[in-house]
Amino acid sequence: HAIGCNERRPTNKSTDLFLVLDRFKVVNDSLGHHAGDKLLKKIAKALIDVVRDTDTVARLGGDEFVILVEELECDDVAYEIANRITELLSAPFIIENQSVFIGTSIGVLFNNERYGSADNMLRDADIAMYHAKDKGKGRYEVFDSSMHKKVQNALSLEMDIREAITNQEFTPYFQPIVQMTDGKIIGFEALARWPSEKRGFVFPNDFIPLAEETNLVMEIDLQILEKSCRQLQLWQQRLGLEHLYVSCNFYCNHFFSSSLPQDVQAIIDKTGVKPHQVRIELTERALLENNDIVLKNMYALKKMGVKILLDDFGTGYCSMSYLKRLPINTIKVDQFFVRTMLDDKDGLSIIRAIISLSKNLGFSITAEGVETLDQAEALKYMGCDCFQGYYF
Q1: pLDDT tens digit sequence for 206-227
Q2: Which residues of 174-188 are buried (b: 16+ CB within 10 A; e: fewer)?
Q3: Per the confidence metrics, is the pTM higher than 0.90?
Q4: Which candidate in 21, 143, 304, 314 could, as Cys together with 63 as Cys, close a disulfide (CB 3.0–4.6 Å)?
Q5: Of 337, 373, 374, which Cα lies nearest the Cα of 354?
Q6: In what order do the strands lie in the sheet with 13-21?
């Protein structure tokens, strides 16, 4: 109807506000779906109250709403409504006697002569909303044609990633892990790299975020683990170095899957490496979600003989007392702390505290991102067990 009015009277402008609730899943998961339903009803009523009588509020499904603003005198009216909604949904809602903070990301689309289809308008408003989410949530973004191009580029990249997985293009680059006591290489971290047949060398920051978003990273991780284990076998056969191990990063969703132990065991059986020569690295995010299945998978890997490393420690929310209950062998100090420790007394104190507490709890410590001799010597003095980084 709005499109038809715009075609008859081009001065009769309208706009779509496409909004999604930023933290609705947290409410559903923590308080239950009944609480989530109550929250949706409260938000729907609040949205109707915040817009004009001539505007239309619709829920598309899940936690997505669209507001159609007609008879738009000027663009500023749409911005004013978007700001009011952002402010409204940044305040707490009381659900089940608890305050919950939701927030919203909004895509704003102004109708013009090129839109003859409601579906196309909703598509572009949706694209703008995702740009708002990508830029930090709790905000609105106005659609422009460059956003559409960005989405098309992402679709093209996703197709190329899928093709690269089929063609086994992803390959491990190995960073040595060095023992503090004697400088001896004891293992390697395998880093996923993509020398694409189509695109040339694609940098990790250009493909990993999309691979994570589409869950394709799980297939990449398994491909990297298998290739790393095969390479480890070759080194051991040629050099007779049984002490070497390989360590691979696994995306958190692996630990939410009941098939993780079987996936890892199948690769160990196929490549012939020993389970104790395989390390799996996970981040704190995996420990904060889906707790039961994560713990079950961690203990299953431990029973197999695979060791578990906690990567990027210090950047999340895990306490040492919580970690003590988990079957973790090694804490990896995030490279941010290592990079800044010689210029920042607080950073140095944090590393010293992590090393001291880890030792008391029986964890070994590996420092990532060691780039200078001074950093290596300072970490050695503090009792760090192993290093890795460009210095080595």
Answers
A1: 999 999 989 999 999 999 999 9
A2: bbbbbebeeeeeebb
A3: no
A4: 21
A5: 337
A6: 56-61, 64-72, 13-21, 104-110, 140-142
